[in-house]
Design goal:
nucleotide-binding, 314 residues, alpha/beta, LRR_N_plant-typ, Leucine-rich repeat, LRR (right-handed beta-alpha superhelix), 2 domains, 2 helices, elongated, seven-stranded mixed sheet, LRR_dom_sf, 15 strands
């Protein structure tokens, strides 16, 4: 039992020593790097300060055993920098050198960083072709080389970066055809404003046309555009059918009104003779009454006249 405890303590102490040595080496590497570069902004990388808590742009892993990330964007780095020194940071996962004025060719020595997951060299003055083989970055998820002066063809080996989800090569001078990149997890692609030719490969046709603008590339109709067009056609068809139904309903209402009016006219035309008969009855009654009055008067006066003109007989 005591032997096991002692063995565990030895392992723990050994690991602590290794971790302490690793962070010590990383600190020495970064001091060497900063002393060999030109930069307009002051970096407080002092040997007397803690590299994990005090150094600008430096982030360590959770146990502070090694450098995990370098965020040196817009720090005034300029010129042809020897980035091979940074390649000694074996546990480095994030390298951000965006928005500086770094020149020179692509730093192939960075391929030694096997744990690298994010590399951003955008908005610098890098030039020349990319390495033909980039497959060593098996864990790379983000690659941004935009707004430089890289030229040559886009390496097809990028397709071997199966964990890649963001690729930005816009605003360079890449030429030739776009390689067929079978990367299912790729969510963001930007190849705009280069000198690319040919057609967009089948594997990349899911991306919007803006990803290929500024090239001599024959881009197919984007699937989302087709869906939008199809949806638009369905909307137009629905509106047209609604208008047709509304017109038919209006015509039906007008037809009912016309039929109703005609029925009313027929009824009124049938009622007019009876009304006329009703209206003529009082006149007939008056005439008949007058006639009866005249007849009655004549019947009473005539005998009187005849009596007065006739001899009286007792």
């Amino acid at each position: 039992m005591k032997c096991q405890v002692v063995l565990i303590l030895i392992v723990v102490i050994f690991n602590v020593c290794i971790e302490a040595e690793t962070i010590k080496e990383d600190k020495h590497t970064l001091l060497q790097f900063v002393n060999n570069i030109n930069h307009s902004h002051s970096l407080n990388w002092s040997p007397s300060l803690s590299i994990c808590t005090k150094w600008t742009g430096v982030t360590c892993n959770s146990d502070h055993s090694s450098v995990d990330a370098l965020h040196l964007a817009a720090t005034g780095l300029r010129g042809d920098i020897e980035l091979s020194i940074i390649a000694r940071l074996s546990n480095l996962r994030f390298l951000i050198l965006s928005s500086n004025n770094i020149s020179g060719t692509f730093p192939t020595t960075l391929q030694a960083l096997k744990n690298l997951t994010e590399l951003k060299l955008d908005f610098n003055e890098f030039s020349g072709p990319l390495p033909s083989d980039l497959s060593s970055w098996e864990r790379l998820q983000v690659l941004d080389l935009s707004n430089n002066r890289f030229n040559g063809s886009i390496p097809s080996s990028i397709g071997k970066l199966t964990l890649l989800h963001s690729l930005n090569l816009a605003y360079n001078k890449f030429s030739g055809e776009i390689p067929d990149l079978h990367i299912p997890g790729l969510k963001l692609l930007n190849l705009a404003h280069n000198n690319l030719t040919g057609t967009v490969p089948q594997s990349l046709q899911r991306f919007p046309l803006s990803a290929f603008v500024g090239n001599k590339v024959l881009a197919p109709v984007h699937s989302s555009l087709r869906k939008h067009t199809k949806h638009h056609n369905h909307v137009v068809l629905g509106i047209a059918l609604s208008v047709c139904f509304a017109i038919l309903a209006l015509l039906a209402i007008l037809l009912v009104i016309i039929i109703h009016n005609r029925e009313e006219q027929r009824r009124s035309s049938k009622d007019k003779p009876s009304k006329r008969r009703k209206d003529s009855d009082p006149n007939v009654e008056k005439l008949a009454s007058g006639y009866r009055s005249e007849v009655s008067t004549g019947a009473t006066t005539t005998p009187i006249g005849s009596l007065s003109g006739s001899p009286y007989i007792l």
